[in-house]
Amino acid sequence: MRNLLRRLAGRYGLFLGVAAAVMAGFEFVICAVVSSIDVPALFAELMKSVPQVMKDLVGQYIGGFGPADLLAFGWNHPVALAIGGAVAVVLASRAVAGEIEAGTLELVLSQPISRGRYFAGQVAFAAAALAVLSLAGAAATFAGERLYGLDALGTRSLLLLAANFFLLQAAWFGVTLLVSVFGREAGRVAFAGFLVALLSYLIQVIAEIWPKAAFLRPYSPNAYYDPRVIIKTGALPAGSVAVLAGIAVAGAALSFWRFKRRDIP
Amino acid sequence: MNAPPLAVDDLAKRYGPVRALAGVSFSVEAGEVFGYLGPNGAGKTTTLRIILGLVHASAGGVTVFGGAPADPRTRREIGYLPGEMRLYGEMTGGRLLDYFAGFRNAGPPVLRARLLAALGLEPPDLARRVKFLSHGTRQKIGLVIAMQHDPQLLLLDEPTTGLDPLVQKAFRDLVLEFAARGRAVFFSSHVLSEVEAVCGRVAILRAGKLVAVESVDDLRARMLRRLEVRFGGDAPLDLGTVAGVARTEVEGKDARLWIRGDVNPVLRRIAREEVERFVFPEAELEDIFLTYYRGGG
After folding, report:
1. Do B72 and A107 touch (CB under 8 A)?
2. Is the CB of B87 inside 8 Å of chain A's CB atoms?
3. How does B281-292 read in b/e, with b if 16+ C-beta sit within 10 Å?
4. B239-280 pLDDT, tens per residue?
5. Staple partner for B199: which of A29, A181, A225, B35, CB 3.0–4.6 Å?
């Protein structure tokens, strides 16, 4: 399996490096912005002129205008979610469907490696990649806080935030992998994965701002990724861990079940 | 190892309503080059993928040295060249060889240097990314991947595709050398002359069913071969009575003859006439199928 992991590192090293750098850069910029302007006063001024629905959205999403609230918002920003989702979806779509599309899986699985080990290698690599991405973001927030003297999030909260982010992306990886083991084209699988992640995000947003749609909130995995809760309570709710980890594990387990049985290519 | 290198028993594969294979049985012995001959779409690649555990059989079974193909320990004994050679384009040839050798944890690949020399792969070829290599060079790299660890069973699917004639000759010599050292070689192809050149026995597959399994010598003796002649005058009408002629079609000066076995009686008869054109093409798969479907088998 070491052989496989080395190849994956070579194949995706640049992509992951860029993703981690963008993630870290984004979180660092958030720190810089929070430190450089009087954000609470600025938002209060802005809120005077926006419609109620926007006030509700901002209120729900950010929770408050203190430095900690805004740093947490940086972790729930569409840019951060898109970077994490891209890494999860790309790795999952290429793990099986992409290799079949490229015609390389046939030769790899004709070698003395079981489907189980191949699959475990792909999952282990993705887990490591998502962990690196999450920790890169956390490290950047930590560094930004120290550099700009924000001291808003404790190390524990920051690590919990990164863990919650990791679990959400792991869930997207599991879901996309399940599509990947049925597919033959990475592009279509990736599109399906992105679509699911986007729908989940939109459902959560709609459920937040439209009371009549609030009942939808528990059905969006994004509802279990909530940096505000971590900041307020200093804890990652066990329910959120269970739901996101459950999606990730169930997705991977069902994928493996199917992968063992499918014909290659 | 007492079990044969490869045993295929009553193998069947269906894709929904489509029958890809039905009732396919044969075995390949150590030291043998076994041909697997059939037109495109006959089921040759499906058979190979079942042998490797990549495709699941609908019925029947395959054993490799008595073990299940899905077991990685079994596949340790196998070298495989796919029919459509697709490699990681971003890797160099050298890295690819190392990558595939790395699955075996069995030390340096013992035959690599010899194969590189025999197939004419130079260090610059191995230093370039695969996506920049020609089809033929990629095929050579595929052959080295399949053979570099000196496998006990070599599975080759259309192995000479894209190779120039000189390299084809070198490759055939390598295959024969493999067999001479007691390795079993399963050689799938749709080119009859290629199979004739290296195989001792051959299985003939058509539309997913085995037409015959026999030695190449027997096949040659039984095979109908087509001969086309244009005479200076009208074609003689007694050609059908000459020894070895199984069937004739005569139209004016042109005659088409199907011959089984020794061609000399026919050549002697034709030599008595004035001949304008004489064509005796390489036997093709269709000639084999004629042999079996027109009462020749």
Report:
1. no
2. yes
3. eebbbebbbbbb
4. 999 998 988 999 999 999 989 888 899 999 999 999 999 999
5. B35
Q: Residue B68: which region, alpha, beta or left (left: phi > 0; alpha: psi -120 to 50)? A: beta
Does residue B103 belong to the interface with chain A, where contact is any CB pair within 8 Å? yes
Check residue B157 and give its pLDDT. 94
DSSP conformation letters of B130-142: GGGS-HHHHHHHH
Residue range A227-255: mean pLDDT, rounded: 94
What residues of A are in contact with residue B72 (Cβ under 8 Å)? 112-114, 117
Q: What residues of chain B lie within 8 A of the CB of A111, using their CB?
A: 75, 100, 103-104
Closest approach of B22 to chain A, Cα-based (Å)? 18
Which range has highest mean pLDDT (A48-62, A64-78, A241-255, B243-257)? A241-255
Instruction: Please report the number of interchain residue pairs, chain A to chain B, with beta-carbon separation below 8 angstroms.
Output: 63
Please answer yes or no on whether A112 and B55 come within 8 Å at the CB atom: no
In chain A, the residue whose alpha carbon lies closest to the alpha carbon of B48 is A110
Tokens 């979180």, residue located:
A27
Rounded Cα gap, residues B211 and B13, in angstroms: 17
pLDDT digits over A94-127, tens only?
A: 999 999 999 999 999 999 999 999 999 999 999 9
Query: In the prediction, which pLDDT does B2 show?
Result: 76
| Chain B residues near residue A114 by CB distance under 8 angstroms | 70, 72
CA distances from B285 to B160, B165, B280 (A): 17, 20, 15
Interhelix angle A238-261/A155-180, nearest 10 degrees = 30
At B297, the pLDDT band (50, 70, 90 cuts) reads very low
Q: Is B166 exposed, middle or buried (0-12, 13-18, 19+ CB in 10 A)?
A: exposed
